[in-house]
Amino acid sequence: MLEGKVTLITGASRGLGRALALACAKEGASLVINSRSEGSLQPVAEEVQGAGAEVLSVAADVSVETEIQKLVGGAVRRFGKIDVLINNAGLLGPRVAIEEYPEDEWRRVIDANLTAPFLLSKAAIPHMPEGASIINVVSGVSIEGRAEWGAYSVSKFGVEGLTQILSAELKDRGIRANAVDPGGMRTEMRAAAYPEEDPQTRITPEENTAVFLYLASDESRHVTGERFKAQEFQRTG
Q: CA 77, CA 19: separation in Å to the nearest integer?
C-alpha cells in the first residue's frame, strides 16, 4: 500500500505515533520518525527495522524552526523527498480554567500543537511531490470548545483551520491535506486527561491506524480538505 513512500511522523516515540510508524513500515513505507529524545526513538527504530523498513530517527523539538530544518534536511538528504507528513506530536497542557491558565504553559502548548505543524508543513512542502499527503491530528475538542481544555483545544481548532488552508493552497499541485480525530485511545495523554477513566474501555493506538494508512496511500489521491473520525472509519472503512 505504501511501497516507495517516505513517511515522516512526529511524536513517534509512543502512543499513536509509534503505532503509525509500525503500521506504515508493515505497508512498505520508508520512515522518518521524530520525537524530542533520541533515546525514546531507538526502540521504535528497532521495531520499524524489524518490520523490514528503512528508518531515519531524528530527535528535534518541532516547535523550533532550526530544529525543523534539521529534521526535514535529514529526511531529504537520506530519502530525497517526503511523500507523507503526519503531524502527530502534541502536548495536553494543564486542565484548568482560562482565568487560571499559566501564560508560559499556554505558549508552550500552542507552540507544540499549532506552530509546529505550521513550521513543519512549510519546510516539508517544497520536498513533497505530486500525490503527497499531509495528515494533521485533531481532536473532539477542536470543533467544540469545552471547559478546562484551554490551549489544547484552542491549538487544535487552529490545526483544523491550517488543514483547510493547506488543502486550498496545495490542491493544484496535487498535494492533499486532511485532518484525523483519533478519538479516545489507551494512551498516556488520555490517562492524564481522564484519570478516572478505565483505560481498558478504550481501543489501543495499534487498532486505530486504518484511516491514516488510507490517507497516506494513493487510494485517497483525490481526497483533500476532509475531516475523519478514525474510529468510525475503522468500523465502516
A: 25
Q: How far is CA 71 from the centre of its chain?
A: 15
pTM, entire model: 0.94
**Residue 25: all three cell numbers together:** 513500515
Instruction: Provide the domain count of the chain.
Output: 1
Say which of 101, 152, 194, 214 is annotated catalytic: 152
Predicted confidence (pLDDT) per residue in 155-175, tens digit: 999 999 999 999 999 999 999
In terms of DSSP H, where are the helices of 111-170? 116-124, 150-170
At 103 the three-state DSSP class reads helix
Burial class (CB in 10 A: 0-12, 13-18, 19+), 201: exposed
Q: Which value, in Å, is the radius of gyration of the alpha carbons in the chain?
A: 17
- Which cell is 80 given? 530525497
In a domain, 47, yes or no: yes
Is residue 108 within a helix (H) or strand (E), and if so which, with residue range?
helix 103-110
- Residue at 1 is within a domain: no
Domain that includes residue 18, residue range: 6-236
Q: Among this protein's residues, is 101 annotated catalytic? A: no
- Residue 77 maps to a domain: yes
The answer to whether residue 98 is domain-embedded is yes
Q: What is the CATH number of the domain that holds 92?
A: 3.40.50.720
Place of cell 518541532: 62
Three cell numbers at 104?
508560559
